[in-house]
Each structure stands twice: as structure tokens, then as C-alpha cells.
Write a structure and sequence with these properties.
Rossmann fold, 8 strands, about 40% helix, alpha/beta, about 15% strand, 9 helices, globular
Length: about 325
Amino acid sequence: MSKSDALAHRVSTLFFHGLSRAGRLHPHSDPRRHRVELTRDLRYITHSTAATDAHVLDVYKPTGRPGPLPIVFYVHGGAFQILSKDTHWLMGLAFARHGYLVINISYRLAPRHPFPAAIDDTCQAWLWLLREAERLGGDLSRVAVAGESAGGNLVTALTLAACQRRDEPYARAVFDAGVVPRATLPFCALLEVSRPERFARRRMPSWVHGMLRGTSTSYLHDVETGNVRDLADPLVVFERGDRLDRPLPPFFAPVGTKDPLLDDTRRLEKALTSLGVPCEARYYPGGIHAFHALVWQPRAKHCWRDALAFLDRHTRP
């Protein structure tokens, strides 16, 4: 990583973590105000020399509701390089206040931990959930996966691992566990990491092009071309029409029309439709990248209503 990239990542990290901490000071951010119980920093990898401080997750549990509860497994964004579950507490709270048991995870970040560290960790956290769901009061027959940007990539790759028998040990463990999400929600997702040059035909500031190129280089590093990159490029697998061993679940894919990653959602909708997989892609006029995090804006409220309605249709009795 260049010195300028390292500085940009440092500034971004400080900004978003500072914004997150400031948001937590608002009275409405207290989970108890929404009848939600928060358990922080549970370790999903413990008995391994590979365990790090990144292998933690938070559990948001609605109180006063009959169980077992439907589950949302949430994975944060940040170009695979920055942010954590702590910057994405708002997502956990938003789903939990609607009645979902939420598992909000952190994972190892590039460039120190390039591919496949992030998807490996996501799979390990998923397996932790499968082991612990009953104890937590969750219903594994009604579990959905969601994430934005890089997290949208990771939950899409996780869904692919649950539906396709693969050689990667972490993916094979997910497949062998036998639980397929009832729904997958990739918000404004980066679904093909390996080919950032495809964005060159879109009008966007040069720094955005540079960020997308840097994301690809940082995450994939020296990974070979070909199928070894499938779980970094799950969209390509769908477009190729590779054989799946289990049916994919329905997808809800929201994105703003001013998002640099807009085309990945368009391609996802087309690819899944050609496979006969229900895909409810929603395009929100004027929305920038991750606009749904700006929860006070009308378009963000619209997006959340749509996402929760989709979840309810697929996870409620």
C-alpha cells in the first residue's frame, strides 16, 4: 500500500469511527430504548492460532417478543479494508427493533489480510451462528443474510458457498452444514472485485476510480486468475451459469442511481433472473453509495421499508 493510500485509509477509519461514536451518544441510539438487548464482542473463533481481535461479533436481541426469532446475519462494508461491526451498529439496531435477532460481525481486513481472509471469516462466523442460534433464541429455518458494499459481496459469496459444493475448506464447511439462507440482501454491493477497469466507462471522479482499483489490488493481492477468485467475484459465477447443488434463495438488491457500483446490481438482477432466481432489485433515484445509512433521508426510509417488507415476506410465518 502506498503512503497516500495508507493515509487515506487512516483518515477514513478515524472519520467513520468518530461518526459512529458520536451517533451512539444520541438518546435514540440506546438499544434499551427500542427494547433490544445488546451483547458485544463475542468471539466466533477461539480455539485457533489464527484467532485475532477481528474475530468478534455483536448480538442484538429484541426483548418481549415470542421466540424463536427470525435472524439477520449482517456483514459490514468498507472496501474490505476499513470499518467494523462497531461502525455499523445502526444496521444491527434497525433490524433488531423490527423483531430480528441480529448477528453483526467483524472480520479481518486487507491489505494485511487479503483474500480469502474476509470470506473465510464470514463463513466461520456463519458456522458459529449455526451452532449457537438455539441458545440465542433464533430460528435457523428463518435466517437471512445482509450486508452493504464489500459486505454485500461477502453475503453473496456466503450464499453461493451454501448452495454450491466447492473445494475451499471454509466454503465446503458451509455447504456441509446444510443451512441455506431464506433470503439474501446485498445493499449497493461490489460483486466483482477482480476487474475494476469495468468502471472506466462510467463518469465518476478520478479518486473514485483510484479507490476501486485500490480495493481490487488490496483485497486480491497476488491471487491467481480463474475460478480461485469465484468467492471474490460471485456475480461472475452467476453470469457463467455454473451448476448449483441447491437452489439460491430470493435476493433483495437495493442501490442508488448515483452509486458508482450501480452496474453490479443491474448485472446481478439480470444474471439471477436468467437462472430463475427471484431478485427484487430496487433503484433509488439520486441515491449515493450506502445512502440507506443516512436514515433521516426520505429515500433511505423508503429503502428500509422495502428491505424490511421483503424480509417479512420471506422469514415470517
